[in-house]
Structure formats: structure tokens, C-alpha cells
Amino acid sequence: MEKRYLIPIGVLGLTVLIAALVVTRTPIFSLVSPNHALAADQSIYNGIPTDAGKTNFMTQSNNLTKTVDPELVDLDSQIISCAPNVDSLLTKSPTTGGSCLAGPTKLASTTGLYMGGQCCGTLMDTKKYHANLQKLQAYKGMPDIVLDPMHTPIPLAKKWIDYDNATALTPAQQTIFDQAYAISKEKPCCCKCWHYFVNEGIAKKMIIDGAYSAQQIANYWDASGICGA
User: Which of 127, 146, 184, 202 has the fewest Cβ atoms within 10 Å of its own Cβ atom?
Assistant: First the structure.
């Protein structure tokens, strides 16, 4: 009896598909519907907790038409606020203070979220961000210093804001602060938001402890910028 070899339909179909791709040189990803990618981006957009973060994501994704670096999505997903304090974020009904990109946002929870950046502009790549993180490692010997400003824990931000409010410098200490202010391009921050007062409190502690010079304080401020663009 003649032997017959049956090729499973699934294997045959896959073989034909691969052959067609080789002949036409069609990239496999081109067979994926653009609507699928759009739906995924829309899902990411919907999961971002603040209106400012959503605005950033729309810019980075060119209105949901291209993929966004997951690290940028993470930064978009933090608490973006220009508020001068963070007390409202420690309540049961947290609200951001709004930013240059969007108004206040009512948050369901702040669990797992950090004070973030991009409050005045959208970060389009992370190259400068990574470079600044490396520079900030020079200050890791100072207790409770913020080494990743775009991921500042809310309690730590409150600590430094409270310290800033409660601490007055002597005239000699103020001179060092003023020197740092004059040297720095960034200053404590571009506007007097929570980050400004965190950095002001950190600088006061640096001066009072006598561990850092005006130049080193200025360098810290410049490497800890969070404005984004």
C-alpha cells in the first residue's frame, strides 16, 4: 500500500506564511494591527494617575501613535505637582497641587507613588536623567539626602520641607547659601514648588553640618533638577 504523509494544516499554514514573508520581505510586526498598539497605549494612558502625567505621555507617544520608553512611563506615573508642600498627599483624600502642564488631580491613593518631576515640561529621553543620578552619588554619605529627585518619597519630602521651615541660618551661614545660589544654574528649583523647599532644606543642613561648600551645594542643586524639558 502506498504511504501517504499528511502535513498538519497549522504547520502548512505557518510554512506558507514564512515563505510569503521571505519573498515579500514584509516585517512580521507590520502584520500586527495598529489598533492593537493604540489600544495598549490607551491602556497605559488610562493608568497614569495625574492629568500632568497623562499630558506628558501624550507628548511622548505623539498622541498615542508610538511606543514610549517604559522608564518614561514610570516617571509619568509618579505624582507631578508644583505645590509648595506635600501635606495633602498624606491624607485619606490626596490631591496634587497641579503643575504647569495640568491642574490639580484627585488621587485614589498615593501608595507606591513618589513625588516626581516633569512639572514644567515633558522629558523625552532619560540620558540627562541618568547622568544626573550618577552625579548625585557623590552625596550619598549624607543621611536622608534625596538621590533620585524624580522618585522622592512623600515622607522624605515632608521631612525636608518641615526642616526648611523650622531652620534659620546665621548671617555667616546665609552667606554660604547665597554663594551657592549665585553659582547654581538650577537654584533649588525653577519655581517655588515642593522640590524647591526640599532642596533648600537639604542645603541648610549641608551648611549647618559644615560638610559641603557653596560649590558642592550648587552642584547638588544642578544635578537634582526635575523640570523635564
Answer: 127
Cβ atoms of 110 and 46 within 8 Å: the answer is no
Contact 161, 194 (CB under 8 A): yes
Amino acid at 182: A
Higher pLDDT pick, 36 / 104: 104
User: What are the C-alpha distances in Å from 8 to residues 11, 13, 128, 194?
Assistant: 5, 9, 54, 65
The Cα 89–Cα 120 span in angstroms is 20
**DSSP code of 36?**
H
Q: Which three cell numbers stand for residue 170?
A: 546665621
96 vs 87: CA distance, rounded Å: 10
pLDDT tens-digit map of 90-115: 999 999 999 999 999 999 999 999 99
Residue 34: the pLDDT is 57
* Residue 8 DSSP symbol: P
Query: Does the pLDDT of residue 22 top 50, yes or no?
Result: no
**What pLDDT, on the 0 to 100 scale, is given for residue 19?**
42
As beta bridge partners, residue 152 has 115
pTM of the shown model: 0.83
The alpha helices in 149-193, defined as continuous H runs, are: 154-166, 171-183
* Among 26, 59, 64, 24, residue whose Cα is nearest residue 44: 64
Domain ranges in the chain are 32-223
Tell me the angle at which helices 154-166 and 194-209 cross, rounded to the nearest 10 degrees: 60
